[in-house]
Structures are given as C-alpha cells and as structure tokens.
C-alpha cells in the first residue's frame, strides 16, 4: 500500500501535527494524562487522545462485510444468553479455574433464582476484526477475521467518530499535501449518536419520564471524554439525563423499591444501568463493588449489558461456537451460518477434550502462529509466540481450561505517523476494525437491531496488543480502497 507520508517533509508534518492538536483539544478528542504527582494536571489537564495522523487504507469489501454481519452477531449474543444449558456447560467448567468468571456466573444464577425483574435487555456490542491476506492475494481481496466479540463496556465510540472528523478536516484544509486521499473514501462513523440513541430507546421503553440513565464508571476514569460525548448527545438529542456512578457508589447510595424493584440512587429512579466498567477483576477491589453489581442486576432497570450478555462475551464461548455444529444450535439459516463462519479464525480449546489435548501438544511444539487468550476483557492479557510454551509449562491441566488458543491473523503492514502526547512517530503499523451494534429486546420480541458505527485502532507491528486505553494502540479512521 502507498505510504501517505512518504513525500512529506518535516515542515508539512509539523503543520499537520499542529492542526491535529488544535482540532483534538477544541473538539474533545482528548484523554486525561496518566497519574502524576502534579495535582493540578490530574484535576484539570488533558492531552490529545493517541491518534494516527493519516487515515489507514482498508479494503472496502471487507469493511462492508463487517458492517453487514453485525446485526447477525447482535442477534447471536441474545440467543445464546437465553440458553441456560449452553451457558451452564461452559461457565461451570470455567468457574473451577477462573474466580472472576465464577463470581459473575454465581451472580447470574442468584438473580435467575430470585426471578428476573426486568425482561428487557440492551446490548451495545462491538465485534473486532483483523483483515487476513493470503500470500499472493491482492489487498482488495483481504477478508475479515474476528478477534473477539465485546459485550460489555465497549469504548471509543465517541473518540473514533471524532478521529474520522479530524482526518476529514485535515484533508479538507490541507489536502494532506498530496493527491493520494479522496475525501469520499473517508467514511464517517455515527457511533456517538448510535450509542446514545440505543440508550434513549431503552430509557423510553422503561417508561418513566422522570427516571435517568446511569453510567457505571471506574473511579478516576482517564477516558471520561469518550463517555461524556454520549452523555451530552443523550441530553441534547433525546432530552434524557445521565448520571455517573461507580459500583461502590451504587452500593452506598442505591436501594430497590420493595414492590416494583425499581432502582433508586438517592431519590433518583434509574431507567438504564449502562456499564462502562465491571468487566475486570480490578473493577471489584472489595465486596462493596460486588454488592453494587448485584443490586443493579436485581433491579427493574434495563441493563446494558445484562450479566448473561457479559458471560456470552467470554473467549471460551467464541471458541466453542467455532466447533462443528455449535453455531447451528442458535442459527438455523444456512446462509447466515456461512456468513458468520467466514469471519471465524482457527480457535482451539485447552481443556481435557481430545481437541484440547491435541492443541496443547501442538502448541508445545510450535506456538509461533498462535495467541493464547484468557477470559479477560481489556488490553495486556494475551500471550504470544514462544511465551505460550513457557506459560503452558507452568499451568496445571485444570488451569489450562481458563484459556483458549487462536491462530494469529497476519494482516498487511502499512505505514503511518502516530501522534501521542503531542509527539510524532513514524511507524510500520497494522490495524484492527471494530463494528458497533445496538440491540434492544423486550423479553418477547426485538425492538431494534442496528449497526452502530465503527472504530479503527492502529498499532506498531512490534506491539501484539490492541487496547488504546491500555497504551498499545492509537485511534484511527478508514481510507476505503
């Protein structure tokens, strides 16, 4: 692929950098800086969100396919969440080796036993893909391969939209000092509006004009501005007020109406509990956070996601679905099965099954083309290459069940210029596409099942991980080719 920055001199790059920084700071394309000893910086300072200075080339057919199948994944998540037996088989096995999954599954069972107060459920999902290019294959023929399906606390819906706006602004004002970029090839993403619209749909379905949406957040959230854009859009476009609470604050300030099970934070009724936390062990440092989660799950508030949706996002579920006949348990239409399976890559268990034992032995011999994944969300948890063999040697046969193996996807390498903390870095990069989905079900029928925009994350080829918040990648946008 063409190197968009190859013919630009340092003066031109500086012009682009300065324009990008001003745009970012004036449009809220920002994050809070890492914690320092400078209290002033922590309280009021911001830095530009890490972004790519140029949009990254991406095959238009692969992009269109990812957008096309997102509603299929939205529906699949819901259908799996309704199959207690399927979840039981997977979660009981994982619960013996993963304490966090066990706590989540125990919470799920407890709420099911008590009786579900709110049959409606809202999903804001994101399916992540890397494009795979076979040797000798043209870039335009590359295919999407799913990395993971995220069902809780999907982030960067706002900052990804703004990054696309940034790239279109730079193209309109500077032309990127070349004729290589056609502005019509830079698709916009409506993920800010889509996520806010999904929350509004759930709020109005709840049926109380005075209730508010509650975003459950992490203490000291550095990525608050990505969240605030959704809050502002929800208010300005839909007239719905959003409040922000941590899990501990839900536990301290929350109560359930003894008759209706409506959730109140103080004297404020909550229509939707929208989680932008609660996906990692670090979100539950004490029992108080678990108490807050249980209170919300017991309540009449519509959950985004429900605990069942969160469990469906476990990597083990992704691996099981790839096995012969498992996807067909939930999807009866052969064409839908074909479309979904075409996006799968090689996925293997590490359990006691013959397939799991075979995968274990194969990985001990050659792990160069594999990635070993736990059930954790967020960046920094995967194990790659030779490190897999060392990790497998330290795990018992039972402990291995907490992981799956996945074939490494080999994407084409492009070149870009990354902008972090005001500094430019030329880099060889690979990119990961995320497609958002909005899904609302009332317990009897689907109310909405939509695409929700897209995200592109780009990272240096020396980085295995793709999490922007974890410091591995930058936010990017698409140049469709």
Automatic annotation (TrEMBL):
<feature type="binding site">
    <location>
        <position position="432"/>
    </location>
    <ligand>
        <name>ATP</name>
    </ligand>
</feature>
<feature type="binding site">
    <location>
        <position position="457"/>
    </location>
    <ligand>
        <name>substrate</name>
    </ligand>
</feature>
<feature type="binding site">
    <location>
        <position position="148"/>
    </location>
    <ligand>
        <name>ATP</name>
    </ligand>
</feature>
<dbReference type="GO" id="GO:0004363">
    <property type="term" value="F:glutathione synthase activity"/>
</dbReference>
<dbReference type="GO" id="GO:0005524">
    <property type="term" value="F:ATP binding"/>
</dbReference>
<keyword id="KW-0547">Nucleotide-binding</keyword>
<feature type="binding site">
    <location>
        <position position="377"/>
    </location>
    <ligand>
        <name>Mg(2+)</name>
    </ligand>
</feature>
<dbReference type="InterPro" id="IPR014042">
    <property type="entry name" value="Glutathione_synthase_a-hlx"/>
</dbReference>
<keyword id="KW-0067">ATP-binding</keyword>
<feature type="binding site">
    <location>
        <begin position="468"/>
        <end position="469"/>
    </location>
    <ligand>
        <name>substrate</name>
    </ligand>
</feature>
<dbReference type="InterPro" id="IPR037013">
    <property type="entry name" value="GSH-S_sub-bd_sf"/>
</dbReference>
<protein>
    <recommendedName>
        <fullName>Glutathione synthetase</fullName>
        <ecNumber>6.3.2.3</ecNumber>
    </recommendedName>
</protein>
<dbReference type="Pfam" id="PF03199">
    <property type="entry name" value="GSH_synthase"/>
</dbReference>
<keyword id="KW-0436">Ligase</keyword>
<dbReference type="InterPro" id="IPR005615">
    <property type="entry name" value="Glutathione_synthase"/>
</dbReference>
<comment type="similarity">
    <text>Belongs to the eukaryotic GSH synthase family.</text>
</comment>
<dbReference type="GO" id="GO:0043295">
    <property type="term" value="F:glutathione binding"/>
</dbReference>
<feature type="binding site">
    <location>
        <begin position="221"/>
        <end position="223"/>
    </location>
    <ligand>
        <name>substrate</name>
    </ligand>
</feature>
<feature type="binding site">
    <location>
        <position position="459"/>
    </location>
    <ligand>
        <name>ATP</name>
    </ligand>
</feature>
<feature type="binding site">
    <location>
        <begin position="152"/>
        <end position="155"/>
    </location>
    <ligand>
        <name>substrate</name>
    </ligand>
</feature>
<keyword id="KW-0479">Metal-binding</keyword>
<keyword id="KW-0460">Magnesium</keyword>
<comment type="subunit">
    <text>Homodimer.</text>
</comment>
<feature type="binding site">
    <location>
        <position position="148"/>
    </location>
    <ligand>
        <name>Mg(2+)</name>
    </ligand>
</feature>
<feature type="binding site">
    <location>
        <begin position="276"/>
        <end position="279"/>
    </location>
    <ligand>
        <name>substrate</name>
    </ligand>
</feature>
<dbReference type="GO" id="GO:0000287">
    <property type="term" value="F:magnesium ion binding"/>
</dbReference>
<feature type="binding site">
    <location>
        <position position="465"/>
    </location>
    <ligand>
        <name>ATP</name>
    </ligand>
</feature>
<feature type="domain" description="Glutathione synthase substrate-binding">
    <location>
        <begin position="212"/>
        <end position="312"/>
    </location>
</feature>
<feature type="binding site">
    <location>
        <position position="126"/>
    </location>
    <ligand>
        <name>substrate</name>
    </ligand>
</feature>
<keyword id="KW-0317">Glutathione biosynthesis</keyword>
<comment type="pathway">
    <text>Sulfur metabolism; glutathione biosynthesis; glutathione from L-cysteine and L-glutamate: step 2/2.</text>
</comment>
<dbReference type="GO" id="GO:0005829">
    <property type="term" value="C:cytosol"/>
</dbReference>
<dbReference type="Pfam" id="PF03917">
    <property type="entry name" value="GSH_synth_ATP"/>
</dbReference>
<feature type="binding site">
    <location>
        <begin position="406"/>
        <end position="409"/>
    </location>
    <ligand>
        <name>ATP</name>
    </ligand>
</feature>
<feature type="binding site">
    <location>
        <position position="315"/>
    </location>
    <ligand>
        <name>ATP</name>
    </ligand>
</feature>
<feature type="binding site">
    <location>
        <position position="384"/>
    </location>
    <ligand>
        <name>ATP</name>
    </ligand>
</feature>
<feature type="binding site">
    <location>
        <position position="150"/>
    </location>
    <ligand>
        <name>Mg(2+)</name>
    </ligand>
</feature>
<dbReference type="InterPro" id="IPR014709">
    <property type="entry name" value="Glutathione_synthase_C_euk"/>
</dbReference>
<feature type="binding site">
    <location>
        <position position="227"/>
    </location>
    <ligand>
        <name>substrate</name>
    </ligand>
</feature>
<dbReference type="InterPro" id="IPR004887">
    <property type="entry name" value="GSH_synth_subst-bd"/>
</dbReference>
<dbReference type="InterPro" id="IPR014049">
    <property type="entry name" value="Glutathione_synthase_N_euk"/>
</dbReference>
<feature type="binding site">
    <location>
        <begin position="373"/>
        <end position="382"/>
    </location>
    <ligand>
        <name>ATP</name>
    </ligand>
</feature>
